[in-house]
């Protein structure tokens, strides 16, 4: 396992009677991309603000690259973050904006500014005014700003908000390439769980300020291989569902004239033969990969039952 770059231990944030973060513990390792998942109000943004030093914890500890966050200067120099949508002076060029933000740090020269512009693919547009940039370009410029101080950890809160499909794909590819090139650890919060599934190595689920589950991408892949969500195209879905329920005790539902059910691969032949005996034509099967959304929803539902 790679080196630990962030350690969160028994972190708690209390606002009067509201516990926004509740005894939360987890670690991040060098060079991984970790998805931070939760519904609105789950405590994700509060956790990120605690890690980035924007607010102080009620209890618990945060250690960044071996430095306690109470030693703010030494700890936070290892973090770059976009906590909300990045804001720039639109009448200035990308390079001028980064020069302005670089003035808040020691020893960030033009060479470093040009390097981060190359990393985010904006070097050829560095002299264009930011007001002419697309939303996706502004998001990449925001990441460039967060990378100015060469951090070990990059924290992104909803970095694809407002982007179209092409922009989301570009950001995903860029973040994967960035980690491969620089070994920076990326901690990313997003509501687009399908995109996180394509991007992240590991996932942390949070609900009501508490960690509910933690697993890596292999876990999702294993579930997908062993248990497949299947849809079937048939000429009479209503009749087919009744047959499958009564004779095979299969739980299934109809959506958009397709039958959705849970079955093993080897059960498909049995289903086809059974439906054929009842004069139901099967046009085809399709797999619906077990997605991160399903894992998230089942985790939250199971925990609520236990609570």
Written account of the structure:
The chain is of the alpha/beta class and 307 residues long. The chain is 38% helix and 29% strand. The protein has 11 helices and 14 strands. A 6-stranded mixed beta sheet has the order 6-7-8-3-9-10, with helices on both faces. It has a 4-stranded antiparallel beta sheet with strand order 2-1-4-5. Helix 3 packs across helix 4 and helix 5 packs parallel to helix 6. The longest helix is centred in the middle third of the chain and has 18 residues. The model has no long low-confidence stretch (mean pLDDT 88).
**End-to-end gap:** 33 Å
Question: Main β-sheet, in a few words?
Answer: 6 strands, mixed
Which residues form runs of ≥5 with pLDDT under 50? none
Describe the global form.
Answer: elongated
The secondary-structure class comes to: alpha/beta
Listing every helix as H and every strand as E from the N terminus to the C terminus, the arrangement reads EEEHEEHEHHHEHEHEEHEHEEHEH
Q: Nearest-angstrom radius of gyration?
A: 24 Å
Spatial strand order of the main sheet:
6-7-8-3-9-10
Key words describing this protein structure:
307 residues, alpha/beta, six-stranded mixed β-sheet, four-stranded antiparallel β-sheet, 11 helices, elongated
How would you concisely characterize the structure shown here?
With 307 residues, the chain is of the alpha/beta class.
Q: Topology, pairings included?
A:
Layout: E1 4-15, E2 18-29, E3 33-37, H1 44-51, E4 59-64, E5 67-68, H2 72-76, E6 79-82, H3 94-102, H4 110-119, H5 135-146, E7 153-157, H6 165-182, E8 185-189, H7 193-199, E9 202-207, E10 210-216, H8 217-226, E11 228-234, H9 237-248, E12 252-255, E13 258-263, H10 268-277, E14 282-288, H11 292-306
Helix pairs in contact: 3-4, 5-6
């Amino acid at each position: 396992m790679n080196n630990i770059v962030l350690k969160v231990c028994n972190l708690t944030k209390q606002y009067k009677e509201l516990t926004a973060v509740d005894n939360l513990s987890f670690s991040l390792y060098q060079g991984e991309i970790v998805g931070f998942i939760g519904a609105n109000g789950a405590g994700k943004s509060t956790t990120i603000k605690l890690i980035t030093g924007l607010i102080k914890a009620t209890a618990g500890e945060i250690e960044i690259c071996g430095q306690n966050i109470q030693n703010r200067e030494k700890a936070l120099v290892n973090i770059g973050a976009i906590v909300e949508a990045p804001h720039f002076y639109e009448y200035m060029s990308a390079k001028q904006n980064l020069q302005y933000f670089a003035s808040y740090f020691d020893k960030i020269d033009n060479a470093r500014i040009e390097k981060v512009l190359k990393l985010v693919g904006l070097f050829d547009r560095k002299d264009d005014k930011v007001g002419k940039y697309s939303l996706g370009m502004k998001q990449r410029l925001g990441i460039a700003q967060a990378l100015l101080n060469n951090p070990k950890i990059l924290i992104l809160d909803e970095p694809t908000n407002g982007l179209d499909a092409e922009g989301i794909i570009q950001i995903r590819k860029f973040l994967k390439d960035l980690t491969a090139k620089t070994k920076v650890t990326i901690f990313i919060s997003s509501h687009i769980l399908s995109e996180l599934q394509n991007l992240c190595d590991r996932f942390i689920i949070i609900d009501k300020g508490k960690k509910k589950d933690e697993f890596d991408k292999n876990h999702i892949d294993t579930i997908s291989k062993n248990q497949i969500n299947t849809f079937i195209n048939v000429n009479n879905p209503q009749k087919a569902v009744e047959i499958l329920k009564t004779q095979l005790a299969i739980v299934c539902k109809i959506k958009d004239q397709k039958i959705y059910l849970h079955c093993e691969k080897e059960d498909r032949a049995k289903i086809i033969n059974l439906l054929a005996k009842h004069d139901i034509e099967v046009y085809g099967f399709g797999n619906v990969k077990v997605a991160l959304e399903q894992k998230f929803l089942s985790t939250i539902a199971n925990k609520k039952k236990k609570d």
